Batch of 2 targets.
Target 1
Amino acid sequence: MHEYSLALALVERVEREARARGASAVHRVTVRVGPLSGVEPGLLVTAYGHLRAGTLCARAELDVASESVVWRCEACGGVLVPGSVLGCPDCGLPARLAGGDALVLERIELEVPAHV
Amino acid sequence: MCDTCGCGDTKLVPVEVQERLLTANDRTAAHNRAHFTLHGVLAVNLMGSPGAGKTALLEATAREVGAARRLAAITGDLETDRDALRLRAAGIPAESITTGSACHLDADMIHHALHHGAADGADTLFIENVGNLVCPAIYDLGQAAIVVALSVTEGEDKPLKYPVMFRTADLVLLTKVDLLPALPDFDRGALQEALARVMPAPRLLEVSARSGTGIAEWVAFLEARRGDAAERAASRATRETDQSVMRGA
């Protein structure tokens, strides 16, 4: 259950950003989590739900965007069929992961006092 | 409501961050890596299920290399320092990290152990991670090589079930091959097939800590990695020198 330590790091990172920008609260947090990131989105949301209490994120929704796994041949640029052996059928070279392992804080929406 | 005057008016301000959630860990891992490079230490992140034979592998490694190398280890377990005690008995100075309920080692824990002298005087540091095929996979520790131990009784399809762990491995060690005569259904081809679907450049080595099978080849792998790491460090140093010469000019 490393999702708890990640959620803690997420809340701390978002709070730092919110404080630096004079926000009174955080409205929304958006992360991108790929299937090969090693993180289970549902568990991350649960952990975040527990850890946000008493922080600037207390009322902020956590949106989790996904992304597709893409393995690509570096030589010819061809995209491999999902689930296949990770070598290029044409060039015979090892494929390179071109998407699917993201674990990224994309953006946050802050509530900032209007007159600031 | 706003804190200053109570007017209640707030505006929504979007902020694009686009930053990896593991940025802090990555930064400490880079720091650890620089430390290893500076001190000529080959750091290996050894992962695998509980009971895959990680500690026995290191005991066999110590027997194989003898006095030719100065080995050290950091072991991670939820409780007890039993692995560290075993390794010390085998002649490997070992620091134990008991993680409590944490399921993995992170770069900070390694950094802390280094400050406690975990790699002092060593040329090879084995980081024996918490036995777990899930959580340790995503934490860079600053290692030069990722090695996953998979024992013959765990099943040939393990790589397909835990692709994140196997994807980044530089080497998979099939351990306890001395048991194969008792496992007539074990299918090497199925394991190789599974690895090829999760690792772009699969590399598998069969070892037995008990019989010594494959241990010399495992040590040869380590020596090759040591050469690669030294070469990379040298070319990085040359590049940096070139850049500073160019900046000076």
Target 2
Amino acid sequence: MVYLTRKVEFSASHVYHNPEFSAEENRRVFGKCNNPHGHGHNYVLEVTVAGEPDARTGMIIDLQELKGLLQREILERMDHRFLNYEVPELKGRIPTTETVAMTIWGLLEPKIQRARLHRVRLYETPDLFVDCFGDGR
Amino acid sequence: MKVQLTRRYRFSASHRLHSADLSAEENRRIYGKCNNPYGHGHNYALEVTVGGAVNSSTGMIANLVDLDEFVQREVVEPFDHRYLNEEVAAFQQTVPTTENLCREVFRRLRRFPEAHLERIRIEETGANSFEYAGDPGESQR
């Protein structure tokens, strides 16, 4: 098995707020992330696919295809957006790094054909990242 | 789906690699410059990885404020700007290599109550890093 990782960056804003919590509870649980106007990050996304290299091409996945998929599914959806309001998959959810990474997994996993999605790693800052792995890990 | 969150922390500390079980000559031969009697320091980077279910009302595996406070109290405060050999009880008998530092940090952090500690990783320098995920069958201390 060979693993290939492609990295892309996007910038987006978000706010953490649960309407089922009181204002005080929201502030206590989410701290500064509850600021109603939101705040943003430069996200770095690393997508790792796994597979056996094709005998004729020597590739586990066509990088151009993967690049196009990331552009269409992730960058066009999330780059320079307010995640809570502009990304339909995140509406009504709290767009923590965990939630955004899991959403990205859900968007990419069914669309990767020849190889298998192995890991989605999403950095919210250089000091915080979340990894998602499939159940067959 | 398995989800893990990793947070990165930093601390600076000094140490000396010296084993009381070895002769002075052996200590010099095995540990080289790291055996210099006055010790030396590093800027350590620590990555802490926790896993578990994502809470549906917060969207989080663990609240970062709680994780930060816990790691700060258990590791960063007691280690930062300290001489590990003299100021951390665990290293008074054990050589503070980064391997042993990993085990001590893991032992301290596994008590984090909100999520499961999956592994830790320590960079001693930009070129050397060490990972520890506990040993199979190791008791929960």
